[in-house]
Amino acid sequence: MSAMVAMQISAPGKALVRIERPLPEPDTNELLIEVAACGVCRTDLHVLDGEISARYPIIPGHEIVGRVAAIGAQVEGFSLGQRVGVPWLGHTCGQCPYCHAGQENLCDAPLFTGATRDGGYASHVVADARYCFDLPERFSDVEAAPLLCAGLIGWRALRLAGAAPVIGLYGFGAAAHILAQVARHQKRDVYAFTKDGDEEGQDFAQSLGCAWAGGSSDDPPRLLDAALIFAPVGELVPRALRAVKKGGRVICAGIHMSDIPSFPYADLWEERQILSVANLTREDGTSFFEAIGSIDLHIATQTFRLEDANEALQSLRSGKVKGAAVLVSRNANA
Ligand SMILES: [Zn+2]
Ligand SMILES: [Zn+2]
């Protein structure tokens, strides 16, 4: 095959359009990957809406599962046909103070898959091999896709929560449904907050072992040690602050959020903290895949054809997806 197909965003606010282009050659440190499945993340909506910094035109998608189709001259440790995962962090400079301090997620000159370098809403993608992951075999292509952002950025957020035996998850979508299971495995008690009135979502949360599920306006039946916010809704920050104990943490796990309304200082006092999560390090990925190696994770997915990427994004925007939306190619195993 000498051509690739993709669904591309030409400018913010424009629907994705199908394009064909010649198959790219991998550079010396890169892999050419034939895409089997690519998760649809809320960040893709932020790219589509022009709410975060991105390059246009851009092929979105940063939860990519595929197989190595060609290998750059200096790549080590990968073989043709090997299954790999491509995450959001696409490249770092290796030279800035953050890279030197082990905080490559904050690199001054990064590239992000599906935002500043082309991503996985495509038949093929080129990725820097140094940022690709080997994936646990027991997950199918479709199941593995949402692990690459929803799973592992959720994992970074969970680690920022510290020991926190009682945690709340605000927004019960792709990330929270994975993290709830990981947190239960760690013997934490999990409280799930869905959109108000979303009884189906609340039933889903309880089916995954959550001790309680309610609407985001509800008070949980006990105070939380930490709250993780996955919904892009600024009003949730003061609400979550009021739901955590003294010394509790509120962790904002998304890349974009509506404005946070003002709130009384008393809600923050007593050493409560608000943190944000930005991007991921490669260590987040390796520790996450190691951590879930022994967990019987149930990954809920709704699949769409690559050509139906607009429909997949619309379903995500309207809150209709239970679990994670995933674009699949014909050769994906589910
Ligand atoms: Zn850097
Ligand atoms: Zn993402």
Structure write-up:
It is built from ten helices and 17 strands. It is α/β, with parallel strands linked by helices and 334 residues long. Helix 7 (236-243) links the parallel strand 13 (224-229) and strand 14 (244-252). Helix 4 (150-160) packs across helix 5 (174-185) and helix 4 (150-160) packs across helix 9. The radius of gyration is 19 Å and the shape is globular. The two termini are 24 Å apart. Bound molecules: zinc ion (2 copies). Residues 92-93, 95-96, 98-99, 107-109 line the site of one zinc ion.
What percentage of the residues does DSSP assign to strands (E)? 25-35%
Count of runs of 4 or more consecutive helical residues: 10
Helix content: 10-25%
Distance between the termini: 24 Å
Tell me the Rg in angstroms.
19 Å
Bound molecule kinds, no repeats: zinc ion
Number of strands: 17
Provide the succession of SSEs: EEEHEEEHEEEHHEHEHEEHEHEHEHE
Helix/strand/pairing category: alpha/beta
Low-confidence residue ranges:
none
**Whole-number mean pLDDT:** 96
The geometry reads as globular
Largest sheet geometry: 7 strands, mixed
- What's the oligomerization state? single chain
